[in-house]
Design goal:
With 202 residues, the chain is of the alpha/beta class. The chain has six helices and seven strands; from the N terminus they run βαβαβαβααβαββ. A seven-stranded mixed β-sheet has the order 3-2-4-5-1-6-7, with helices on both faces.
Length: 202
């Protein structure tokens, strides 16, 4: 099986992470059959690539809730800035199905890192996009170079709500939209989940 990228998007609390986990489990079962059948555990072929960092208690609680519902045999790799490195490590450890959750948190991480210390030193949106698009493209380039890997990516549709009332919020929204377009162009399948209902777009 050639490697493939599955992108799952949707608004907040739409059920996109649940659906992405379903796709991941199905892919791991397929991979287990291809790897030798009954002696191979599907859960043992999965790596969870986490981009979120627990900056406060509320985020820590969210992360804990996600961890609790995942199979214990899934390998968890922290990947707040360079997921391609985590993918390479997981691949070397024998993991062939990977779930990256989520792409928009990766955008947030990079945006916070790139923000100038002085307010008057504002960067252009294109500068931010170029910097963030690079580690995202590294993901796709690496997957294309590997054999028999399924990468499931979760992302958010940040532009479906109200227009943010501040420049930073609008910048984040715009960058997330552009990165999502980059990811959709690279993906083999694109799914949109709305109100718990998945629709395949690509």
């Amino acid at each position: 099986m050639t490697s493939r990228i599955l992108l799952v998007s949707g608004p907040v609390r739409s059920g996109k992470s649940d659906y992405a986990e379903e796709l991941t489990k199905a892919a791991s079962e397929e991979a287990a059959v291809g790897a030798g059948g009954t002696n191979v555990s599907p859960e043992g072929l999965v790596a969870y690539l986490a981009t979120a960092e627990a900056g406060d208690q509320e985020m820590a609680d969210r992360i804990a809730a996600h961890q609790a519902r995942r199979p214990q045999a899934w390998l968890t790799k922290e990947a707040p800035f360079r997921p391609a490195e985590a993918i390479q490590e997981a691949y070397a450890a024998g993991r062939r199905v990977m779930l990256l959750d989520c792409l928009t948190m990766l955008v947030s991480n990079w945006l916070c890192r790139l923000l100038p210390e002085e307010e008057q030193e504002q960067l252009l949106e294109q500068d931010y996009f170029s910097a963030i698009a690079q580690p995202v493209e590294e993901i796709f380039a690496l997957i294309r170079s590997l054999q028999d890997v399924t990468l499931v990516i979760v992302t958010d549709e940040t532009g479906w709500g109200l227009v943010p009332d501040n420049a930073l919020g609008r910048l984040y929204r715009d960058l997330a939209g552009r990165i999502n377009r980059q990811a959709a162009a690279a993906a083999d399948q694109v799914w949109l989940v709305v109100m718990g209902l998945p629709q395949q777009l690509k």
